[in-house]
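Supplementary Note 2. Why include the ligand at all?

Several targets in our set were suspected to adopt different conformations when bound, so apo predictions alone were not considered sufficient. For every target with a known small-molecule partner we therefore ran a joint prediction. The input for CO-5-methoxybenzimidazolylcobamide is given below.
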Amino acid sequence: MALKIETEKEFNLDDLKQDIDTTRKTDRWNDAPTELKELFHKLEWNIIDGEHADTVGLINPALESQVSARTLIAGPMATGIAEVGRRFKMDEYFLPEVMMSAKCMHAALGRLKPLIIAEKTEEIGTVVVGTVQGDLHDIGKKIVAMMMEAAGFTVIDLGVTVPPDDFIAAIREHKPKIVGFSALLTTTMNMQWETIKRITAEGLRQDVKVFVGGAPISQAWCDKIGADAYGMDALVAVEKAKACVTKLSNMKGGDPELHAAMLAIDKARDEAKLKQAQALAQAQAQAQVKAAAG
Ligand code: B1M
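The joint prediction is reproduced in token form.
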């Protein structure tokens, strides 16, 4: 059975600005066995240092210790690349370093992809995804595509810097239930809007549910451009995609009721997370009282 390790919490990543010895003192991954906590920290630093030849060598022992592919992606891989983003933003890293870190992410995802896709047990529809024109970022989109595939979708991944015409051609050819645009740059977000406008102009808007995602994308942006759903992360995107092809399958792309139903999924998820955090805090408080009494 897969080990359960908390990855959803908002972690303090300040230690990743220092060195691995500082990282060893953080309480991140404290719910993992000691040797796995160490492995997770090594993986974080492998991504920060861009040592892609060694990445799979860290992934394999984690998998052998029953860590799931999803935990690795949402856990140490996410924290490692987040620190790379911070360093890039602060001009501590430049493109060559970021490219090496991206290679680590690709090496890890290449190893994990077959494991995620093996979870697929049913066929629930086709999704077309791509990173919009002018944008080369594809790590997040690949994760979304993998998770969608695992959930039962056939995913047609059009790659990066996809012009609106290619999305339109793919909609005509594959007749997907969902089309998703990823954008990581503030300068390319607008291509999501342009692509929706083109889909509408071609008379295809009602045929597909439009999903948008990527680091600069928000619910407000999704609302503004008239997309149906915003995927904050891959898990949310999959949950909404599944709802679109099951209980909301009668609704057409662009329907305001569909949009409202997508927002309700976010609300339910936030409430569930809050409940979980409260239950955890309560359990910890009870354990402290018990320890103090005994
Ligand atoms: Co670039 N880059 N980059 N970069 N890069 C960012 C995005 C940046 C925020 C870094 C920074 O300044 N801190 C910044 C953008 C600033 C801005 O516009 N506001 C930036 C910049 C400026 C650039 C260049 C312009 C730099 C330059 O040339 N001077 C250049 C642009 C090239 C281009 O696209 N034309 C560039 C290039 C690159 C590399 C090629 C070196 C490399 C990309 C390699 C690759 O992807 N193959 C790269 C990288 C790696 C990054 C950072 C560091 C990491 C991105 C990433 O993979 N994150 C990034 C910093 C950051 O994001 N904090 C940065 C991990 C990934 C799992 O998260 O992609 O957000 P994310 O995906 C998530 C969610 O967003 C969501 O689910 C995913 C999984 O949970 N999601 C969706 C994503 N797509 C979705 C679609 C959906 C639903 C959910 O439905 C369809």
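The longest helix spans residues 256-293. The first strand starts at residue 125 and ends at 131. Comparable summaries for the other entries are listed in the accompanying table.
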